[in-house]
Amino acid sequence: MRPKGARRFPKLDRVMEPGVDGSDPVLQALIRRLGGDAALAKRILSLSAKYPAGTIPELLCFDWLMKEGLKFEYQVELYGGRRIRGGLIPDVLLYRDGTNGDIWQVQGDYFHSIAKKGFHDQTTNYRMLGQIINGVTVARVIELWESDLYRLRPQIFY
Can you give the pTM of this predicted structure? Predict the structure, then answer.
């Protein structure tokens, strides 16, 4: 029995695009999660091979930014990044113009909920504001939530 409020996914054969081999269970699960978009699922799996530290929601953003032809950098280092305790790795640095940029912080619903790490995430966002990364001043830090990326794609990116 399905828990109350759980999403029910359509059968895979109804959502698969013609000519897509759906025998891979990882691909099947990803297609279901993405609402049946097999082409997007294949692109995400391809990106995950190139960027193994990337999460599915982050790679959804990466894929959309590439398709739109926007200038961005993925997982840039700030304050020493992974090498120094207290360093930060913003998910996406999106260039707005020659001097300003926005950071997209892609938040997973489970690990970044207010009850779990919300205070830490807000502190991190404030630390990034106004910083200069690769010659660009961070003007805004925007949180994109996992559930919104699945439900409201592509409108959420605008």
Answer: 0.74
